[in-house]
Design brief:
Elements lengths: L3 H11 L2 E8 L2 E8 L1 E3 L2 E7 L3 H8 L2 E6 L10 E9 L4 H12 L9 E14 L5 E4 L1
Antiparallel strand pairs: 1-2, 1-5, 3-4, 4-7, 5-6, 6-7, 7-8
Length: about 130
């Protein structure tokens, strides 16, 4: 039987497109994002001057949904509350940059990779909701 951590990690690894919410002032904004991960930490790349980067610089907290698909609306999914942090490992930075290089066409100088450290992750649609705290 899979543990809570294994179930959550499986959903994160198998679903790299999800929604990410930020606050602009008091208004919520949600957009689709492409993610990669190292264990429970998520990474995304976006343009340096994007609204989401400005929002996260003002309020570093975000809410992310991964795992919900049109093909399987009853499948388990995760709700992630995370906080923006700085990527400090240069080898990891290169790995993340290479992952996103083929996805985005903007000049690399215009792109920034953001690291999102989980605070809580809730497993949904798998019986009673279960929460993993970090």
């Amino acid at each position: 039987m899979e543990t809570l951590k294994e179930k959550i990690l499986s959903i994160i690894k198998d679903n790299n497109i999800g929604t990410m919410a930020t606050l602009n002032g008091r208004q919520p904004y949600v957009r689709y994002m492409t993610f990669t991960n190292e264990d429970f930490v998520l990474y995304a790349t976006t343009t340096e001057d994007s609204q989401k980067v400005m929002d996260l610089n003002e309020n570093p907290y975000t809410h992310i949904l991964l795992g919900y698909t049109k093909e399987d609306m009853d499948a388990p999914y995760v709700e992630i509350t995370a906080k923006l942090s700085e990527i400090k490992d240069d080898t990891l930075k290169m790995k993340i940059t290479n992952f996103f290089k083929d996805i985005f066409t903007s000049d690399e100088g215009d792109m920034v990779t953001i690291q999102l450290d989980p605070i809580t992750i809730k497993l949904m649609n798998d019986g009673e909701p279960q929460e993993l705290n970090f």
